[in-house]
Design brief:
By secondary structure, this protein is an alpha/beta fold. It has a single domain (about 5-169), classed as Flavodoxin domain (Rossmann fold, 3-Layer(aba) Sandwich). The chain contains five helices and nine strands, in the order E-H-E-H-E-H-E-H-E-E-E-E-E-H. Strands 1, 2, 3, 4, 5 and 9 form a six-stranded parallel sheet that branches. Helix 1 (about 15-25) packs across helix 5 (about 150-169). The longest helix is centred in the C-terminal third of the chain and has 17 residues, at about 150-169. The protein is globular, with a radius of gyration of 15 Å. It starts with a strand and ends with a helix. The structure holds flavin mononucleotide.
Length: about 170
């Protein structure tokens, strides 16, 4: 993956921590919260890594939504992303939300898919204890699933393996 930018939301928690680890492991690539991303950033990078958490998706279309993802998607529409390659990672908690593990990643995945980008970096479900996930397709999640609440000790190894995979895709 040449010319890659990592963009994530929210800040100050597990997503940002994971974003920084991934950026560092990839050789200090640029990493920004999505509310700081400019149209110029989106245009000049060929590859995107997008990171999100899962805290309920019902507010996605609400006008009172303070979440910057919908606005970010509007920026993607302006830029046009059907020539971009996108890899996703999502944070969740498989013990407290076993039927909705990393569902947030499915929302972002759908939004990116609709806009025609090439999506890479699916990740095997083996090793997780969840029951259901909207982000699961067959034996894979649509991106890297990280669980800093229940399996923090596995994250670094997962990240390293996933980076190997997406950089050779
Ligand atoms: C109110 C709330 C709802 C959550 N719902 C889910 C959920 O449906 N599925 C899931 O996998 N994790 C869920 N989580 C867990 C978070 O996604 C997880 O703790 C994540 O690491 C938080 O990232 P952050 O620290 O960057 O906000 C929820 C957490 C909170 C606080």
């Amino acid at each position: 993956m040449e010319k890659t930018i990592l963009m994530y939301w929210p800040t100050a928690g597990n997503v940002e921590k994971s974003a920084k680890t991934i950026a560092k492991q990839m050789g200090n690539i640029e990493a920004k919260p999505i509310n700081e991303v400019s149209l110029d950033d989106l245009q000049s990078y060929k590859n995107y890594i997008l990171g999100c958490s899962t805290v309920g998706t019902s507010t996605w279309d609400s006008s009172e939504n303070q979440d910057p993802w919908p606005n970010f998607m509007k920026m993607l529409d302006k830029v046009g992303i059907n020539n971009k390659t996108v890899a996703l990672f999502g944070l969740g908690d498989q013990i407290r939300w076993p039927q909705h593990f990393v569902d947030g990643m499915a929302v972002i995945h759908e939004q990116i898919k609709q806009r025609g980008a090439k999506i890479i970096g699916r990740w095997p479900v083996k090793g997780y204890d969840h029951e259901e996930s909207e982000a699961q397709e067959g034996g894979f999640f649509v991106g890297l699933a990280l669980d800093e609440d229940q399996q923090a000790e596995l994250s670094l190894e997962r990240i390293k393996l996933w980076i190997k995979q997406i950089t050779s895709d």
